[in-house]
């Protein structure tokens, strides 16, 4: 039997739900530098808090990011993803105007698609280690 750590409780439930999210930039443009990723983590952490979620791990490369999110069952993942992508795109465009060169066609930072994988099958330590080992651009 698996021993669950960090069990959360709601009004009517007890839960441990984690999702591994991957967002890629529009047209896979190589947009991000380390400063962008650092600020993006702060923004995404704040969005997660608004949804009563916890951003357990965050990392990325110049054209995509990985998130490991602990979320309550009342949160619709599609709404969380929409907010994470929308808020991060808007704030990064405001704070880093030079990113506009990557938006020559559509005023969007992110591709319309995303990956969401249940992290329940693999031990969280393995998923966390995988995300930690993603390379950040220099």
UniProtKB/TrEMBL annotation:
What SUPFAM superfamilies does this protein's entry cite? Transposase IS200-like
Fetch the InterPro entries from UniProt: Transposase_17, Transposase_17_sf
Gene3D superfamilies with a match to the protein in the record: Transposase IS200-like
> Known PANTHER family for this protein?
TRANSPOSASE FOR INSERTION SEQUENCE ELEMENT IS200
What is the name of this protein?
A: IS200/IS605 family transposase
Q: Which Pfam families match?
A: Y1_Tnp (PF01797)
Span of domain Transposase IS200-like: 14-134
